[in-house]
Amino acid sequence: MRILLVKMSSMGDIFHTFPAISDIKKQFPNAEIDWVVEDSFKEIVQWHPQVRQAIPIHLRRWMKQRDKQSWQEFKAWRKALRAENYDYIIDAQGLLKSAIVAKCAQGKGIDGYDKYSAREGITHWFYKRPHEVDKNQHAVERTRQLVGKALGYIPEPKLNFGINQNFTHIQKNPRKLIFIIGTSWVTKLWATSEWQTLTRTAVDAGFAVEIIWGSAEEQAIADQIINACPQATRPMQRLSITTIAEKLVEAAGVVGLDTGFSHLAGALETPTIALYGATSPLKVGLIGDHTRNLQLSEALDCMPCHKRHCKWLPENSQDTPQCMADIKATQVWAELQKKIAHY
């Protein structure tokens, strides 16, 4: 059985798809699984040992440039894809762009979400076999159910992300914590003063704290935290995704924001606390008993706004929105200690 899975982005979505891959191989040990993914996430997809090959696509760049060279590159990519023939083509993203990409493949028709289940309902016209999947579920379960319906099985309750075996060479450090301070939206950031308090609390409790950063802005925040607590450290250079994964496996616990690396920590089954304010963890938060999605116990009326800018703050403000500022370091520390003690 040859299967093509289309799930191109984002980082968190990639991790959310891993349990479905593990399900397939448990049901069909001889299945060959190829996966179309944005080139920047190819490295991640290849972590799952049951993926035969990651097929990189540069769709974001092509859509941005929209020039002759991009069109020629796309046609060459499509020709190479159509050289293969698949028994099943599954669009697990449910967007118009992913449906179009799935349509480029050669096979016996496409499986995907029906018009009431897909993120963009128009996609059902591209599918030979549309499937109903409840939208009021976590993204992990939606993907597992879609794939199960496409291939004719019911997923078992237990999740298996299936990537830990790539990191068995990493030794766990029971006194090491990783803090993931960055994210793509200003509204998702936590107050630097709270990071400083949390870091000081961890260091005073005997933990080594390493702060992960990925941009100049995040590096500046990391330096502010270290200035307040010099025992904390940060990498001198921006790290590769694989190196960050190794650090997350090594750690006894992780605190992060609504970002792909927090999802990675959860997928690696490291005790992880993720902080949410402007966004909701109900459908796309961390999943598993070793994780905790933390937000205000009494939500503000505007939560979740799913906005990149807080309407209560001046335009272009870098201040922390109340939904995040009111999450206190003492609460985060207490929740982290519970998870570390249990796992």
From TrEMBL:
Origin: domain of life: Bacteria
Localization annotation: Cell inner membrane
Main subcellular localisation: membrane
Swiss-Prot/TrEMBL catalytic activity: an alpha-Kdo-(2->4)-alpha-Kdo-(2->6)-lipid A + ADP-L-glycero-beta-D-manno-heptose = an L-alpha-D-Hep-(1->5)-[alpha-Kdo-(2->4)]-alpha-Kdo-(2->6)-lipid A + ADP + H(+)
GO molecular function: ADP-heptose-lipopolysaccharide heptosyltransferase activity
Transmembrane segments: none
EC number: 2.4.99.23
GO cellular component: cytosol; plasma membrane
GO biological process per UniProt: lipopolysaccharide core region biosynthetic process
Membrane topology: Peripheral membrane protein
Xref: Pfam families: Glyco_transf_9 (PF01075)
CDD domains assigned: GT9_LPS_heptosyltransferase
InterPro entries from the UniProt entry: Glyco_trans_9 (IPR002201), LipoPS_heptosylTferase-I (IPR011908), LPS_LOS_Heptosyltrfase (IPR051199)
Pathway: Bacterial outer membrane biogenesis; LPS core biosynthesis
Keyword line: Cell inner membrane, Cell membrane, Glycosyltransferase, Lipopolysaccharide biosynthesis, Membrane, Transferase
Enzyme class: transferase
Family: Belongs to the glycosyltransferase 9 family.
Protein name per Swiss-Prot or TrEMBL: Lipopolysaccharide heptosyltransferase 1
